[in-house]
Protein: Plant heme peroxidase family profile domain-containing protein
Organism: Eutreptiella gymnastica
Amino acid sequence: DAGTYDSKSNSGGPRAAQRFTESGESTHGANAGLDIARGLLQPIVDKYPGVSVADIWAFASVVATEVSGGPKIPFQKGRKDTVIAAQSVEDGRLPDATKGADHLRDVFYRQGMDDADIVALSGAHTLGRCHKDRSGFEGPWTTQPLKFDNEYFKNLLERKWTLKTNSAGNEQYEDETGALMMLKSDMALIEDEKMKPIVEKFAADE
């Protein structure tokens, strides 16, 4: 939701545009599978009609980060929901897992971020996993995908990664155990000479 923001045009951002399921941002490929999360939060949305859906979704992400062992994040309310699906932004504003550092910069610089922000936000991959039926990729990035820590950065640097083709026909990296994976956009962080030192910094200090 927030990842569609464009600082130059002041468009996109956390406006709950994905709640329109027939068209708009909910149909964008990078959002595949998020209908499950939206469904889990719908009872809370229904219970608090005076709170914007965008605020509820954002608060849920804060709670999820904290309960998984991450930092406490100050929460600021006041996000405004889109009214109709036509207010969705165009597809293509979110990161493409098959691309590299230049693409990541295009996506995140548009939001007013820098290389350190890109690496830090990529660290969210320490949680969860890829699902083949949604993204076309399969597997977790870390050995404890429900724990918020810096294992993602350590794994990037310390494990041996081999590019392979998964059962869906898509290329992803696999570690020496065959249990963990990385996307091309993950590997870009250690292939880029400016981003790699930031990865090393985060790996060394949780």
Remarks:
- The chain has two domains: 2-87, 101-204.
- The two ends are 27 Å apart (CA to CA).
- The chain has a mean pLDDT of 97.
